Amino acid sequence: AVLQDTYSAGVIQPNSRLYFEQDANWDTTAVVGFNATSGTWGVTQRYTYSPYGTISILNADWSTPSSGTQPLVDNLYQGMTLDPVTGLYYERNRNYSPSLGTWISQDSLQYINGANTYQFVMSNPVNATDPLGLVWWNPLSWFDYVGAW
User: Fold this and answer.
1) CB atoms < 10 A from the CB of 107, how many?
2) May I ask which residue range the UniProt record assigns to the signal sequence (predicted)?
3) In the structure, what pLDDT confidence band is assigned to residue 138 with cuts at 50, 70 and 90?
4) Nearest to residue 133, comparing CAs of 85, 95, 100?
5) At CB < 8 A and 24+ separation, what contacts does 1-9 make?
6) pLDDT digits (tens, 9 = 90+) for 84-132
7) How far apart (Å, rounded) are the C-alpha atoms in residues 85 and 148?
8) Contact at 8 Å (CB) between 130 and 91?
9) H or E stretch including 57?
């Protein structure tokens, strides 16, 4: 789990810590926080994504929240940082558009991933990630080498 603290005047605010739960592709799937009313920790928001990263925000009980609800954290789809103003994800070297399903700038490594320098994870977002915005990676590919030793 990843965590986020809220600071005020250089001091961590009591019971303000949020934990992000992630899946195998680094998608943030839930945020766990402290409920001051009940005095307990629990899921405060859940997130689901389309294959190319369009986010759906859900309540802790999987119901749909009221419109206009914003995510509690910025690091969401594949661990990328969402800019709520533009709707683009930032991934160290480039910005990604979930509505287009592509990067919005060319790959600085040029044709390392093929002829399309804007293509996102070789059009296979369910099985691959691109943690730097440069070269796609399939987390399951290490299975190809099991038994090779």
Assistant:
1) 20
2) none
3) low
4) 95
5) 1/32, 2/28, 2/75, 4/73
6) 999 999 988 899 999 999 989 887 777 666 677 888 888 888 888 887 7
7) 48
8) yes
9) strand 55-59
The number of C-alpha atoms within 13 Å of 119 and in the hemisphere containing its C-beta is 15
Q: What are phi and psi of 101, to 5 degrees?
A: 75, 25
Residue 16 tokens, joined: 């303000």
Place of tokens 């991934």: 91
Domain boundaries, the chain: 2-137
The angle formed by the CA atoms of residues 65, 68 and 74, to the nearest 5 degrees, is 90
- Percentage above 70 pLDDT, the chain: 83
In angstroms, the CA 108 to CA 64 distance is 39
Please list, in sequence order, all residues whose beta carbon lies within 8 angstroms of the beta carbon of residue 115, skipping any fewer than 6 positions away.
none
Give residue for tokens 């926080």: 33
Residue with tokens 């990630």: 129
Beta bridge partners of 28: 22
What is the rounded distance in angstroms from the CA atom of residue 18 to the CA atom of residue 63?
Answer: 20
